[in-house]
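Try this one yourself first.
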């Protein structure tokens, strides 16, 4: 069997690394509130990588089924693998860009349905949290500047409040909750944990261990 590259594992490793970097900066905080561009880049990179991991992992499932690459999907019933492959084939033939038009959690729900497994309850904390994590990533990707102290009417900030500890570098300032106080190591860790927990729950229900659960990287300083 020829080797394949599974980017989900690399995204997950990166998300954890950026989180650790942000945490180290906050641990060394000397008590003088400040904006630090390096710290902000670590946190944003962790959020981006965590959500990218979530998307890559489910795409890898479908692509493995489509290509009949059995390294990780061998435990699945052949008929189930065929159903996953057929879905991936149909939407690709319908429109070359169709695969990207399904939301990330929608793809997991489809995978669970095709493998005859119960989906994640939309009212569960796990589902609400992963949707909020994706919304956080989208807020950064599609960020629009707003006047300081402007009231958030979308409910986004209210949902984030209390999910994680605030950015120690700016928690005692008069800066707005988002992005300045929210984007810290706590936020990064929460996003990574939520995305990992959701993926683990889905793949556990499907009955397989994907690459990201087994990959080991030899990190060299």
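Now uncover the answer:
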């Amino acid at each position: 069997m020829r080797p394949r590259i599974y980017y989900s594992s690399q995204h997950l490793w990166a998300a954890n690394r950026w989180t650790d970097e942000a945490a180290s900066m906050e641990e060394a905080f000397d008590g003088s509130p400040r904006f630090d561009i390096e710290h902000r880049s670590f946190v944003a990179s962790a959020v981006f990588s965590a959500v990218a991991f979530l998307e890559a992992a489910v795409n890898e499932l479908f692509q493995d089924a489509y290509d009949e690459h059995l390294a990780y999907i061998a435990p699945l019933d052949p008929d189930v693998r065929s159903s996953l492959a057929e879905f991936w084939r149909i939407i690709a033939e319908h429109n070359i860009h169709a695969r990207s038009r399904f939301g990330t959690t929608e793809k997991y729900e489809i995978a669970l349905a095709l493998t005859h497994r119960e989906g994640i309850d939309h009212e569960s904390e796990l589902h609400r949290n992963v949707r909020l994590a994706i919304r956080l990533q989208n807020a950064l990707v599609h960020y629009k500047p707003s006047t300081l102290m402007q009231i958030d009417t979308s409910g986004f900030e209210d949902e984030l409040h209390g999910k994680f500890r605030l950015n120690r570098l700016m928690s005692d300032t008069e800066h707005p909750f988002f992005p300045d106080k929210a984007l810290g190591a706590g936020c990064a860790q929460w996003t990574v944990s939520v995305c990992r927990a959701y993926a683990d729950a889905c793949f556990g229900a499907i009955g397989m261990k994907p690459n990201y659960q087994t990959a080991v990287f030899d990190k060299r300083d």
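Discussion: The CA atoms of residues 56 and 137 lie 15 Å apart. Residues 37-67 form the longest helix (31 residues).
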